[in-house]
Design goal:
This is Phytanoyl-CoA dioxygenase (PhyH). The chain has about 290 residues and is of the alpha+beta class. The chain has helices at about 30-40, 50-65, 100-105, 110-120, 205-215; strands at about 45-50, 80, 90-95, 125-135, 145, 155, 160-165, 175-180, 215-220, 225-230, 235, 245-255, 260, 285-290. It has a single domain (about 35-280), classed as q2cbj1_9rhob like domain (Jelly Rolls, Sandwich), CATH 2.60.120.
Length: about 290
């Protein structure tokens, strides 16, 4: 039977650094300028949080996880070998890798991620869930324009943060993230679909918002770099028509104290957290207590 790493709320190895007397928060802290950029524009890009060995470890584990008969397949919250609405394109999208493989588990406690996340959340960091978004070479599918929090309203208040981490170089040609800077100040929008028509969001936007959507910012990243974004940031990504894959892991976290707003399980296969109660327990571990990171 496959190991379920959700039972372990600490790193299982030394694959990623740990905060010690020799390796402190200062080694991973964002600058005041980086934090100001996040609050002004709704995102911060180009922060390197994985080294080459860590990238290769995660790529190796990912190769196993994309095989339909992989060990641990019963542990996923959601698994779509192809979520694309276009039959000619492929978008691999899955939630729950942290439960299935030690590398994807241990990266949650990587201080290169947690210290920065604590600064941007202004508090302790609790895990919400992870995602894999993979676009194969030549026919990788789109991720339509959306706001993350539109899918997450069953957790309140809105004190969430997304960290998108490239496992390959991500470019405008192979389907990198695209942001609408400043859209984190827009109100919450209705869900218009995640893997279908890029322009479906147009039906819920004002004329001014549509004008902003016409000039997105392509977030080109080197493998191992990440982009943090606000839960209301409008973002998406176009198809991959290049001869290179575009693979990414996404870590979604909340400031400790965010509560469930639903008595039903928040993710398939998890224990319910009663409405009004803070996220906690086996499936929502505390990753970083905040220390003096803010």
């Amino acid at each position: 039977m496959a190991t379920d790493y959700s039972t372990c709320h600490e790193p299982t190895s030394d694959r990623f650094p740990r905060l010690t007397s020799a390796i402190g928060q200062a080694d991973f802290r964002l600058t005041d300028e980086q934090i100001a950029h996040y609050h002004e524009f709704g995102y911060l890009a180009g922060v390197r949080i994985l080294d080459d060995a860590q990238i290769e470890l995660l790529r190796s584990e990912l190769a196993e996880l994309t095989q339909p008969d992989h060990e641990g397949r019963e542990l996923w919250y959601e698994y779509n070998s192809n979520e694309s609405a276009d039959p000619d394109l492929v978008l691999f999208h899955a939630l729950g890798a942290w439960r299935t493989r030690p590398g994807f588990h241990d990266m949650l406690w990587n201080p290169a991620f947690t210290v920065a996340a604590s600064q941007l959340l202004d508090g302790a960091v609790r895990f919400w869930h992870d995602q894999l978004f993979c676009k194969p070479a030549n026919h990788g599918g789109v991720v339509a324009w959306h706001q993350d929090y539109s899918y997450w309203t069953r957790t309140q208040p809105m004190a969430h943060l997304t960290c998108w981490i490239g496992l390959d170089d991500a470019t405008a040609d192979n389907g990198c993230l695209q942001y609408v800077p400043g859209s984190h100040r827009w109100p919450l929008l209705p869900i218009t679909g995640l893997a279908g028509d890029m322009q479906a969001i147009a039906e819920v936007l004002s004329e001014g918002q549509m004008q902003q959507l016409q000039n997105p910012t392509a977030i080109e990243l080197k493998a191992g770099e990440c982009a943090f974004h606000h839960p209301l940031m409008v973002h998406g990504s176009f198809a991959n028509r290049t001869d290179r894959p575009r693979r990414a892991v996404v870590l979604n976290v909340v400031r400790d104290g965010v509560c469930s707003a639903d008595d039903k399980p928040l993710l398939d296969g998890t224990d319910p957290v009663a409405a009004g109660q803070p996220l906690a327990g086996r499936f929502f571990p505390l990753l970083y207590d905040g220390g003096n990171a803010s």
